[in-house]
Amino acid sequence: MEQLTELEIAVFQLRMGFAPADRCVDWAVERLRLDQEGDDLEVVLLASARGVDEVLPLADVIIERYRGTQRLDQQFLAGKFIVELRAAYLAGRESVASLDAIFTRLYPALAYPDWLVMLSRNCEYAMDVADFEQPFELEFDYIASLWAEAGDVGAFERLYDRERSNRQGVPC
After folding, report:
1. How far apart are CA 172 and CA 141, in angstroms?
2. Angle at 29 between CA 25 and CA 35, to 5 degrees
3. How far apart are CA 136 and CA 118, in angstroms?
4. How many Å apart are CA 167 and CA 172, to the nearest integer?
5. Is the torsion defined by CA of 110, 113, 115, 116 positive or negative?
6. Is 80 exposed, middle or buried (0-12, 13-18, 19+ CB in 10 A)?
7. Could you give the angle at the alpha carbon of 149 between the alpha carbons of 160 and 99, nearest 5°?
8. Angle made by CA atoms 114, 87, 48, in degrees to the nearest 5
9. Closest by alpha carbon to 85, among 74, 72, 94, 96?
10. What is the pLDDT along the chain (172 residues), one digit of tens a residue?
11. Burial class (CB in 10 A: 0-12, 13-18, 19+), 71
12. What is the pTM of this model?
């Protein structure tokens, strides 16, 4: 099954309350349009599902069938979400305030990962202190660029430099 990662990211965002169920439905519709469903009944059903209560069980069955115990790590899915958020921020679809609300929910949901400490902190401070806007944007760019490159959590961790993040947390 092609593009399963895209579905896992959509499911993660749906569960966290950051994306509509339609994103998963759109994924299934695209698989049907491209004739990539491989006669998978759940993909067909997902393409016509409505609402979280219908979408999540079907998406979970599809992911389980093709990934089994090899489901993507929640931090990896969050990292790919960060990449999307960075693009949305640069395009003006997200703001510091909207990102702060997202990071405030994401940070504890992921059990407070090191890589999200400075990004979350700088975002929160940038809402009230103009001097934190540049450190926030530097850290956001840094973290998003690493996640854009990383193929898994291990790859991200090998690239990530906590000291660099710490330096970006101090306003100039």
Report:
1. 17
2. 145
3. 8
4. 10
5. positive
6. buried
7. 75
8. 100
9. 94
10. 458 999 999 999 999 999 999 999 999 999 999 988 888 899 999 999 999 999 999 999 999 999 988 889 999 999 999 999 999 999 999 999 999 999 999 999 999 999 999 999 999 999 999 999 999 999 999 999 999 999 999 999 999 999 999 887 766 5
11. middle
12. 0.88
| HEC string for 102-150 | HHHHHHHHCCCCHHHHHHHHHHHHHCCCHHHHHHHHHHHHHHHHHHHHC
How far is the C-alpha of 111 from the C-alpha of 30, rounded, in Å?
34
**Which residues are CB-contacts of 7 (< 8 A; sequence separation ≥ 6)?**
24, 27, 59, 62, 63
Q: Which backbone phi and psi does 20 adopt, to 5 degrees?
A: -80, 160
Query: Which candidate, 114, 26, 27, 12, places its Cα nearest to that of 71?
Result: 12
